[in-house]
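quick one: BIS(adenosine)-5'-pentaphosphate bound model?
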Amino acid sequence: MRIVFLGPPGAGKGTQAVETCESLRIPHISTGNLLREEMAKGSRLGKTAKGYIEKGQLVPDGLVVDIVAKTIKSASFRKGYLLDGFPRNLSQARALDKVQSVAGLPGLDLVVYFDVPDRAVVPRLTGRRVCRKCGMNYHVSRDRETVTGVCGKCGGEIYHRSDDTKETVVNRLRVYHQQTAPLLQHYRRLGLLVSVRAERDIGAVSREVGGVIRRMAGSAAHAAVRRPARVRMALPGKKQARQR
Ligand code: AP5
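yep, here:
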């Protein structure tokens, strides 16, 4: 299954992606994480990306499309993947179609839109703390790990993302509305978009996402069962026609 999680910063895409990928046994591709890995390595790409990320702007399309293309062409991604934070504008959406088709991969099955108002995401992001080692998310309002500074899952160091300041979050939201939100109409027209109400608590959002995925998996399985049946019925007909 090939899925995109779409929505504003702080909508909960990354949180829900972890559970969805575990249940579907597909890899999680977060362009934000891939870019932050490059920043941590101090690579040329990481140094370029840093300047954009810290201002809350999009990293140039060519750079991001390149890392996504390299990732999804590798063998472990052939059975499916979940893209989180990509595509982020129409040009990236078109590039994704092209990359999939050149690699001989099927197109997207589903785009899940995390519908949440701006007023809900600002406190989520400014209070977020992340484990440097395993990427686990914490929040200052509920998690004691944000006081100890040590990840409860892996013992890694907990840090405050440099783009989770109020000023940068406001800019990320502005960029989202200008450049990413038009993708909703694009994927709605293609019949791929399903919305989830992402302002509710994590458990409620998770149940809704699970339901959407199960319905999609059910209809995909249904289509797959129907397809061979049509082939089976066609073959004897052809044979009979030739015999006559
Ligand atoms: P990226 O890392 O993708 O950041 P983002 O899209 O802004 O998303 P976030 O990770 O901030 O939020 P999320 O929706 O995943 O929420 P999360 O689950 O973490 O991108 C960073 C930057 O990289 C971009 O600004 C850009 O510069 C660059 N970039 C990335 N992709 C790019 C691309 N394709 N093209 C160009 N540039 C690109 O949750 C957030 C917090 O809320 C957590 O604390 C969590 O615990 C909490 N939370 C989650 N769900 C709930 C809930 N239901 N209720 C209460 N709290 C919740």
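The longest strand covers residues 110-115.
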